[in-house]
């Protein structure tokens, strides 16, 4: 099964350095957002705000049907404590409006600090808590965890403003520089996610043998599930199945072929 | 060991929590309202989480002590279990926890005192001449995290002055220091689970080796503690007789039979829906891929294999140990075994855990 790490980015200034670094090409898809891709990474330029981020997740999901997806929201954020230029992965995302909270799960070693990220509706200038402030994460996260297992959904932010550095001074070129300065952290995080998606993808890969069965006989949906599971067993247990053998040649339908596989696997017990 | 620790804000100030956190100064500590915000959510992946489980420190609010399923016991009059922890440090491929929880994070309920009062209150309902058993290690390994949690130490203390209250610590661990530092108590049984070495190496990941577990048992016995042996689950292979013969010889020729409290035997079995979950998580695993049979909502070996293994193992074990110390832990019963020594398990009780 294919797998992909999907980056959801709000601003063009955040996206551009990533598009260049990963050599992404524009995909001619959904007209409401721009999607860029290469063989391993897909980037959606979502626009600002929670609903835009959630919509982008949906669009990418639609383009990557049947694929194991990891999701990474990348962007700049304000912070009540961290220095400008600090990258961090969210270990808690709080939606300031609803106070709903999510806890991203780390099954890899983060290459940067982790911390709380508060998603706000208006740009935060008070920085009242020692947390990060952004405008997308809660919308992104709640949409992405509906498409993938929680361990594959993360949010990476780079601090662009804090109580000592006003958000008013955040320019397009400053954003560009901030993202460029953290490309290696972003790359490492993407690599960790890629490894995980690859692992999950191998769990559901179908193989050549299944293809041969499906070409020769017709199977109901239930029978196909049974067949897939049985063929996996033969593969793991290293049982040889030869669809050209007499046993299989005499099978007139999927049901009888399935029976032969079942019998073969069962006789494996004593050998 | 833990890189991510979640703590319910309610328990943040507990001295026990502070002690635990002090061991993991490099971990990222995140507070939450309830552990259920993190544990066992719909879209979690047990296998991915098993790579790096987080520790969740929480408070249990009710249901401290549970009635053990019928037949769970090892000769007592009343059987209960309690779980101060959910999930395990080890990774046995047959473990029911993989099918039961979507999350592999370790949840520890730190309000041991509430469990302890509930335990003593439960025990007080029965006559002094009745044996009331409390099994720990139902949803975890009782000793694997003892250096961090001191859980066994705490509950040994709880039952130390009650003669009719028995505590079973079920484990595959060698963390026996809390026992060794005490004077042995007759009402504590540390029960070690075993499969033959070759099987253990293949499917009991991260579990201390058979020899190491045996060494821990011997140290306990030397000091006067009684131990239990749990051959549950029995794992089939075409040469299971040789494998189990070697295991039985190793154990019974080393251990003092007088300090073996009990032995239980049960074949691998899982509720069907747990097994389905395991198939999804580990389609590449040769143990899971075996062509098990499904009977009465349980997945296990074909009946002939199940009966053959149980009766053969029973016969071998009874050559070393009195029959009244041997217990069966499942539903089907081989004809060749005297009914008096068999305790039947209910359909619900099909957990292969420690
Ligand atoms: S079977 Fe026991 S030791 Fe193994 S993983 Fe499960 S709880 Fe832990």
How are the secondary structure elements laid out?
The complex is a heterodimer of chains A (271) and B (354).
Chain A: E1 3-9, H1 12-21, E2 25-27, E3 34-37, E4 41-45, H2 50-63, E5 68-79, E6 87-95, E7 101-102, E8 113-119, E9 132-134, H3 137-144, E10 153-161, H4 172-181, H5 183-203, H6 208-216, H7 221-236, H8 246-249, H9 254-267
Parallel strand pairs in A: 1-4, 1-5, 5-10, 6-8, 8-9
Antiparallel strand pairs in A: 2-3, 3-4, 5-9, 6-7, 6-10
Helix pairs in contact in A: 1-4, 2-3, 7-9
Chain B: E1 4-8, H1 15-22, E2 28-32, H2 46-49, E3 55-58, E4 66-67, E5 78-81, E6 85-86, E7 91-92, H3 97-100, E8 106-109, H4 112-123, E9 132-136, H5 146-149, H6 151-159, E10 165-171, H7 177-180, E11 188-193, H8 197-203, E12 204-205, H9 210-223, E13 226-234, H10 240-254, E14 260-267, E15 269-271, H11 272-281, E16 293-295, E17 298-300, H12 303-318, E18 326-328
Parallel strand pairs in B: 1-2, 1-3, 3-8, 5-9, 9-10, 10-11, 11-13, 13-14, 14-18
Antiparallel strand pairs in B: 4-5, 6-8, 7-12, 15-17, 16-17
